[in-house]
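Supplementary Note 3. Input sequence used for the single-chain structure prediction.
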Amino acid sequence: MVSSVILSSLASVASFIPYIAIYLIVREIIGTYPDISSLNAPQVIAYGWLAFGGVVGNILLYFCALMCSHLTAFGTLYQLKVNFASRLAKVPLGFHVMTGSGKLRKIMDENIEKIEEFIAHQLPDIVASFVAPVAILIGMNTGNYASFASDFMFYLLFVPAIASILMKTMYVNSNSMRILSGVESMDAILARPVLRQPQNPRSIDTFDIEFKNATFSYDEDKEIEALSGVSFTAKQGEITAIVGPSGGGKSTIAHLIPRFFDVTGGSISLGGADIRNWIPVISWNR
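The predicted structure, written as discrete structure tokens, is reproduced below.
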């Protein structure tokens, strides 16, 4: 575990190297601007290699730290489970009856596994988070620590402010996508065609229902027809049975009569009048 802590600390120090190298590159460029031709190219390239070395070093050191921490975590988990099982074998059977095997299994499997995550991942990260500020203080080649502390506090306060702005920007972008999806859903509803209202509604005296070569499709492209050329008459006062297999269009016929939908071909009449010309549409303003 000690080796994991040391390697994680070194990885934390190495993670600062690319940022330092980038800072040095930017300083070189600003120092020669606008006369870029006087830029010390070999020095800038050396800083670039320094940044690359810092990235590679950080990855390798952190990988080795995780390898060591995982080996320690697995050994710890094995010993904990052995001790736990050994203890369970020695306690009175009444304890097992009162506690239940499910709860004991959860403690042995889930709760002990949580310790593995802490040892293998979180503990090295905690150590690295404490080592990083110390490494910055030691690495600063300055005798004016008061000025350094002042600058460090400035960046310590400034960086979270920038992070907060970036988080808000990310939240706005994510929220905008959800809003856009909602608007598209509403537009899809608003784009649906309304039920056609009759200009001159007709009155009827009888209630015979007649389908004349009625055709209907649920699909907007009308490639698959639920009804195709259906014709029949249901007389007023008589019982008319519509029979057929499932999916044969019985429910569709029942939906077309009260104008849940309008036929795409042919017509449906009630009392001799096309239902599209006599059934009034209720106004929502009433």
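The beta strands are 209-216, 227-234, 265-270, 273-274. The first strand starts at residue 209 and ends at 216.
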